[in-house]
Amino acid sequence: MAEKRTELSDLGEFGLIDKLAEGISLNNSSTVKGIGDDAAVVEKDEHFALLSTDMLVEGIHFDLSYCPLPHLGYKAVAVNVSDIAAMNGKPEQITVSMALSNRFSLEAIEALYSGMKAAANDYNVDIVGGDTTASKSGLVISVSVLGQVAKNKITYRKGSGQNDILCATGDLGGAFIGLQVLEREKQTFLANPDMQPQLDKYQYIVQRQLKPSARMDIIHELKELDIVPTSMMDISDGLASEVFHLSKHSQVGFAVYEDQLPIDKQTYDTAVEFNLDPITAVLNGGEDYELLFTIKQEDHPKLEKHRDIHFIGHAQTLDKGNVLITKNGNHVPLKAQGWDHLSS
Amino acid sequence: MAEKRTELSDLGEFGLIDKLAEGISLNNSSTVKGIGDDAAVVEKDEHFALLSTDMLVEGIHFDLSYCPLPHLGYKAVAVNVSDIAAMNGKPEQITVSMALSNRFSLEAIEALYSGMKAAANDYNVDIVGGDTTASKSGLVISVSVLGQVAKNKITYRKGSGQNDILCATGDLGGAFIGLQVLEREKQTFLANPDMQPQLDKYQYIVQRQLKPSARMDIIHELKELDIVPTSMMDISDGLASEVFHLSKHSQVGFAVYEDQLPIDKQTYDTAVEFNLDPITAVLNGGEDYELLFTIKQEDHPKLEKHRDIHFIGHAQTLDKGNVLITKNGNHVPLKAQGWDHLSS
User: Fold this and answer.
1) Under CATH, domain A29-150 is a member of which superfamily?
2) How far apart are CA B256 and CA A108, in angstroms?
3) What are the residue boundaries of the structural domains of chain A, listed by start?
4) For residues B278 and B173, is the Cβ–Cβ distance under 8 A?
């Protein structure tokens, strides 16, 4: 009798996480929140501690033929910081584990580490430990982050109430379109190694892909304005996918206005150049690491003039679903086609 | 001009860690101890939080041709728990990240995870998060652990005073000799796939290799006996290597008595069968995950009758160095030849 074999690609990343989370029981009273949000929440006397981890794998998450090692190191830290930001917390310590093959020299690893140190400095976190080991092939980076948040300031994916305003920071789709540019330049280079990459006019979106920022600046501003979002997460898998997460956890639907979606001109123009729909890039491109959150209507005046927070929609009853309201007023069901590293 | 290229194998793991730790500054006042002990130490109001991480890489740390997936999952958790034990702490939460190629099915990952859940249960820790992603080849597991310890109970590698008694738990060398058995059976199987592995008489040492235990039982007993070791670490790279770590951090030398070294009969007999020196296996075999610690002389009576704690030596002035006192009374300089996954 053949053993049952279920392919991971049939499940997808979220399906696998759901499967694995089945039957996990929590033994420690200090565990406030386990699997299922941007970070785990642990009670530590006066505060909540926040714990999160992210793994970057060569050939899946990055391609060293166009990703400079310092940028990669920076990104590995920033994506973890972003998970803590998404809980309205402050990152404080990180550990860094790396598996590397012997094609990497000390100088290469120092370059990678220099980016991590730069990010640690920018985000005011301490690199406190890690593990360094060999690999048979390729580079794997695993960063874990410990942060903290005041108990009355924590934000989950759950918590949005009806009529709350849906907010997104920065601009979206840039990292995805930047990746298209890098992939095209790589193919051009492979076809003709004398060609130099033409990246000047794509500088912003290439940077969005290679060296994303975590929006700790927004977290600090929200604190100063005394605003606690009702729900929040970071946008790593694409806006539409994240709207569905907030919807599922908060048990509300969202109406998202196409004409309010933030897109940079370079993202827009380059999408058009690549025959890609800019709105699809905004909705389904990943890795922007902006924040998606909801606020109560009464907090709107405090943020109204903010140059980098965009009011892209509002929460509604769950039965109304998650819809995109197009420029001409049509209501289209929102579709999530987030990045899925297991099916790629 | 050629760029400088330093091979990682020339540096070794500890050399690399030292290089990378250079120029790391600590920005957070909550960071009590960064790189350089079994776990990082973070101040959390009443307690210290402990943070550690370990990465296991297929083809380097494990070979799936003889390592059952549930055992591997168990080990990935146990080695992290062991790092928290080594700080005299209690593990509470872990995150699990995995990179896996498409040769793994859902059933395989569930088998791996079942071992992690079993270990989580045994050590009373909660699996609170993680990251699951694809890899181009092989399996990489990265586990991070968050623990805690009372401020007056923490033990570092630093702290041993002269004349303190050096203690080791359990028995040593078994995991290393168990690995030799598994490797031999693998070669036999590869040469003749009809041969079935003959592991019955090696059951204990094979288990030592495949499914090590973290000695949380000892940590709990020390607490009950109101003993705080003066220094401690876990024995993952081989006893001799760890003695050098305690020596360096505590600025003392150690005299280790050959006739006090704990070795199981199966380890001894099998070492002889493999033409390996049993004492070398005890001193330099890795992955036993026992505890090595020092206590004040006055605490000795409390532990004297303990069946599983062995008094293998004592601390002396640094200038006397680290020496092995052989059965016939010779003083031989101790040599560390720990495992080094970077030169393999």
Assistant:
1) PurM-like, N-terminal domain (3.30.1330.10)
2) 40
3) 29-150, 165-333
4) yes
- Residue B297 has which token pair? 């002389």
Residue type, B262: P
Cβ <8 Å between A140 and B57 = yes
CB contacts < 8 Å between A and B, how many?
284
Query: Which of these, A283, A264, A294, A301, lies nearest to A167 by C-alpha position?
Result: A294
Going through A10-102 in order, the beta strands assigned E by DSSP cover 31-33, 40-44, 47-57, 90-100
Residues 303-342 of A with CB under 8 A from B: 341-342
> Which residue in chain B is spatially nearest to A41 when comparing CA positions?
B128
- Distance from the A111 Cα atom to the nearest Cα atom in chain B, whole angstroms: 10
Establish whether this prediction's ipTM goes over 0.90. Answer: yes
DSSP tag of A205: H
pLDDT digit string, tens, across residues A67-85: 999 999 999 999 999 999 9
Q: What is the pLDDT of residues A206-239, one digit of tens each?
A: 999 999 999 999 999 999 999 999 999 999 999 9
| CA nearest neighbour of B342 among B19, B51, B3 | B19
Radius of gyration of chain B (CA): 20
Residues for chain B: how many in total? 344
Q: Do B44 and A40 touch (CB under 8 A)?
A: no
Class of domain B165-333: alpha beta
Report the amino acid identity of residue B111: A
Look at B27 and A107 and tell me if their CB atoms are within 8 Å.
Answer: no
